[in-house]
Amino acid sequence: MKRNPVTLATGALVVLIFAALLFAFQVRQTEVVIVTTLGRYTRSLDQPGLYFRLPWPIQNVHRYDNRIRNLEKKYEQTTTADGRLIVIDVFLGWRVKDPRQFLELFGDNLAEAERNLEIQLRTAKNNTVGNHPLADFISVDPQSLRFDQIEAEMLQEIRRATANFGVEIVLLGIKQIGLPESITTKVFDRMKAERERLVKQFQGEGERESIRIRSEADRRREEILAEAEGQARKILGEAEASAAALLKTFEQDPQLAVYLLKLDALEQSLKERATLVLDPRTPPFDLLQNSATQPAPGN
Question: Bridge partners of 250?
Answer without folding.
Answer: none
